[in-house]
Amino acid sequence: GMSMAEASVTIANVQRFSTEDGPGIRTTVFFKGCPMRCPWCHNPETLEFKPEVVWHAGRCLGDRGCIETCETGALAATEAGITVDRERCRGCGACVAYCPSEALQIHGRSYAIDDLSDELRRDAAFYEASGGGVTLSGGEPLAQPEGAIALLEHLHEAGTHTALDTCGAVGADALRRALDAADLVLFDVKTVDAAKHKAYTGVPFERVDASARIVEEAGVAVWVRTPVIPGYTADEENLQAVARYVAETFTRCERHDLLAFSNLCRPKYEQLDRSFALADTPLLSADEMGRLADRVRGESKPGIRVCWSGPTRIQEAVA
Ligand code: SF4
Ligand code: SF4
User: Rounded to whole angstroms, what are the CA distances from 114 to 28, 42, 110?
Assistant: First the structure.
C-alpha cells in the first residue's frame, strides 16, 4: 500500500470543539465524497469528491476582480451575482485567494496525512480532559480508504481516541483495516427495507448489512445513527424495524441516536447550485421525536441508550 508520508485526503471542513460526533470534546474531519445520495443530506458540500467553490452574496464587494483570475473561465458576473460553472472549475483556489473580502470559499482542501494529524493533535489536551478525540466523518471517510486509514492509524498510535462515522457502503478490507485503529464506530442505519434503502440512498441495504457484520466481528464499540426524515424514515414501523435490526446485529452497541431532520442546510444547497428536495419539509416537533424515541426503546435492548437530537419546530399551545 501507500506509505503514510505519501497519503493525502480531500477534506471539506475541519470542525473543532464538536460535541455531536462521539464522546467528549472532539474535532470532526469531514471527508469529501460520498457513495450515497440521501435527499436529506445535511452536508451537501461533502457529496462530490472534487473541490467546490461557493460565493457568499453578503460579503461580495462587486469589484468582479475574481473573474479575471480564473484561467478556465468558470466565473461570471450575472444578475444573480457571481456564478460558478461547475464543469469548468478545476478547484485551483486562485479566485478564493484573490477575493479581498472572503466572498469566495472553497469546500475541499487536500491535506498530507502527517500535516492533518499534527493539526488535529494540537487539541489533544481538550480531548484528554473531556474524554473526547477525533471523528472522521463526511461524506464517507472510507471512500478515500488509504488516506482515512493512515489518518486513523496516525492518531491511534499517538493515543488519540478515534471514531469513524460510516454510511456502510465501503470496501470490506478497508473497513477491517480502519477498525483496527478505531475506538468507536458511528454506524448509520437509515432503513432496513431493501427497496426503500436503494431508492433513498442509491445503495443496496445488503452492502450496509455486510459492513455491520464486519463491525460486529471486529468487536469495536458502536453508536448507531438514524436520520429521522419526514416522508422517508420518520415512521414508527421503519424506526422499530431499525431498532430490532440493531439489537440483533450488534453486541457492542452503546447508543442509538435518532437525528431529527434539519433544513438548516438549505443555503448550502443554494450556494452549491444543488436542488434540495426537502427544502419545504417542516421540522418534526419535540413531541414527535420523543414519541418515536419511545417506540425505538420498546424494540431496543438493555445496554443501548436511545437518544434523540436535532432541531424541532416550535409547537403551538393546545387549548
Ligand atoms: S473578488 Fe470577491 S468581492 Fe470581488 S466580485 Fe469576486 S467574489 Fe465579489
Ligand atoms: S477555483 Fe480556480 S478554476 Fe475554480 S472558479 Fe476559482 S479560479 Fe476558477
Answer: 17, 29, 12
The pLDDT, as a whole number, for residue 1 is: 43
To test the ligand 2 pocket, which listed residue (68, 95, 106) has its Cβ within 8 A of the most ligand atoms?
95
Which three cell numbers mark 65?
476582480
Q: How far apart are CA 211 and CA 155, in angstroms?
A: 23
Are the CB atoms for 112 and 8 separated by under 8 Å?
yes
Of 132, 186, 137, nearest to 161 (Cα)? 132
The ipTM of this complex is 0.97
> Given the CA of residue 65, which atom of ligand 1 is nearest to it?
1
Stretches where the chain sits below pLDDT 70 are 1-6, 315-319
- Residues in contact with 154: Cβ distance below 8 Å, sequence separation at least 6, in sequence order: 4, 113, 114, 117
Proximal ligand: closest to the CA of 103: 1
How far is Cα 55 from Cα 73, in angstroms, rounded to an integer?
A: 16
Strand ranges, E, within the chain: 8-18, 26-31, 52-55, 75-78, 81-84, 104-107, 109-112, 133-137, 162-166, 184-188, 221-228, 253-260, 305-309
Cα 52 to middle of ligand 2, angstroms:
9
**Closest ligand 1 atom to the C-alpha of 55?**
7
Give the C-alpha separation, 44 to 47, whole Å.
5
State how far the Cα of 138 lies from the Cα of 172, in Å rounded to an integer: 19
Structural domains in the chain?
A: 8-48+109-309 (3.20.20.70), 52-107 (3.30.70.20)
Measured CA to CA, the distance from residue 266 to residue 42 in angstroms comes to 8
